[in-house]
Amino acid sequence: MALCFSARTVYSDIRHNFLPHYLLAAAIVVITPLFFSVSELDSRQAAQPLEMIISLTGTVLLTPVFMPEQNESIRDLIRSKKAPYLLTCMIRLLIGLLLLAVLTGISVLYMKKCHSQVTFRHFTGTAASAMALGSIGFFTAGVSNNVIIGYMASLLCYILNFIARDKLSIFFIFSMMNGSYDEKKWIFVLSFALILSVFMYFKLIRKY
Amino acid sequence: MMLFIRECKKIFHSLTFIIYFAAVILMFFTQFWPAMDEPVTSSTIDSYELAKISGEPETIMPKALDSLTGCYFSNTYRCYPYGLFKAVHLNSRDNDKIRDCITEMSSLNADELEELKAASSISHVKVGTNELESYNVKGVPLSEDITYERFREIMGEVDDILGGGSDYRPDDLAYKFSQEPMTHEEILEQYDEFMEKDHIAIAYGRLFSDYLGIILAVIPVFVAAALVTADKRTKMNELIYSRRISSFRLVFTRFAALVLTMVIPVLLCGAIASARIMYMYKGSTPDIAGAFEVSGKWLLPDIMLAAAMGMFISELFSAGMAILVQFAAWFMCMMMTSMPLYGHIGRFTFICRHNSLFYRSEFMKHYSDFIFSRIFYTAAALAAVLLTVFVYELKRGGKFNGIMFFGKDSIFRHKT
């Protein structure tokens, strides 16, 4: 029964709400090699397109999880249904994370095929950066009930990393470009904390 | 006027504006404020390690030709087409074109080039994952007939063959091949310009605009998109559509409210910076009005265009599309910014950079282009607002409901 519900949710969401986002995330992965070199790069150079471009898939995939119910009346209607609203959001989030991992994996494998020096660390590091950007968007969109604010927070975080670079210490999402991987575990922890706190906020404060 | 005040209040109370406000303040204090740690004096100016770009053809041409010849021998060219590294290896046909360019610029023919290659010493450099042969080429004789204008033209062709972003891009030749440290006398000249011509504050005004311009070229789009879509979110669309107010007046009032509110945090930062400058340079008379003038000319078109694009694309497509387009434009502008971060303002430069308190003469060299770009983007912003009026009017008349790529109103959906 639960499986059936999940399958229906996934199908309906993809069809009506999230297809543009999934296509945009895939487009980012496809156009990256057209604009930026991905061949014969050493470890640090390979981290540049991965962290600076592929990580944006996180913003595209995770930020709009709450988008379909931004309108209060639609949300009230959804809440009146038997299926738990937060479970629906969780399924959307998991699909987003899965796609994020798949797209990052495809990028890393493609770079490996093009003789770039990429390892499993590049995969996890890029996924962590993408997840960080996505979870910031997910958190702010959830708490503010406005997806535009989610995008704004996520992209501002990206811009801040772009400008301030290594001044951000353990929260620097482009650290692999500087040859450092230590920041990634903190970014992972931060991402999980943000995702968890949104669900806690909905459950405990908004009583969903 | 009432409508204008109401729109301003609406923006002030929106979360997007609060985040915008915080982002401007954050940018100001983290990026610009450290430049005001201590005043610039004739005794401290040496610590700025200023470099000069002589731009003399006699310096540029031999160095650039030696570099290109070395790259031709190894068939490896370093390029940064969109700010990121790209090692370019040409096929034999394109590499032959490079050879033809070299033979035209030098007095060597193809056979003599091969002899030079055989005689050149080889070192190994790491380029990406590869360890490549690098030819140490020095003293390739320049053709006696070549002029600097023709030299730049040929280098432009070389850059085109390499796909752009190479060291040989004509506009970058001077920076790449004629950069050297300034002498003490030249540094003191920079100090004199800072004190006498920029009257201290104008130099700070340029640096202030350089930093804030980075974010003001993109974040106003969020505030504008949120304002436009707020009507839809609160289901006030139909109610507003039925009012007597003209679309022109409504859209332009909203645009004016957006621009005015978004200028306020910039003015606040400017006021804080001015107070700090006056405190640091007690006894001098910094030209504060001049600083506000340069910042106004610099930043206002950025805010106007980003806000106008946010309004127009949100009305035509959606807020998400507006954010995507403006962010992509911002990203490409940032990635394609040439080094050094001064003296590169062109007629269509959207994000102008001048990341220094000095080099006034480099800025003034491109001043007419700077003014042109600011007028151009102001006009573009006003044109975008006029288009928004047109789209809004169509929506009010029920003739148009925005362009959708997905969903039941998709333009791809067959309607019977």
Structural account:
The complex is a heterodimer of chains A (208) and B (416). With 208 residues, chain A is mainly alpha-helical. Chain A has one domain. Chain A has eight helices and no strands. Chain B is mainly alpha-helical and 416 residues long. Chain B has two domains: 251 residues, no CATH class; 130 residues, no CATH class. Chain B is 61% helix and 6% strand. Chain B has a two-stranded antiparallel ribbon. A two-stranded antiparallel ribbon of chain B has the order 2-3. A two-stranded antiparallel sheet of chain B has the order 4-5. In chain B, a hairpin with a 6-residue loop joins strand 2 and strand 3. The radius of gyration of chain B is 27 Å and the shape is flat. The model of chain B has no long low-confidence stretch (mean pLDDT 86). Chains A and B meet through helix 1, helix 2 and helix 7 of A and helix 2, helix 10 and helix 14 of B.
Task: Sum up the structure in keywords.
heterodimer; A: 208 residues; mainly alpha; 8 helices; B: 416 residues; 2 domains; two-stranded antiparallel ribbon; 61% helix
Concise overview:
The complex is a heterodimer of chains A (208) and B (416). Chain A is an all-alpha fold. Chain A contains eight helices and no strands.
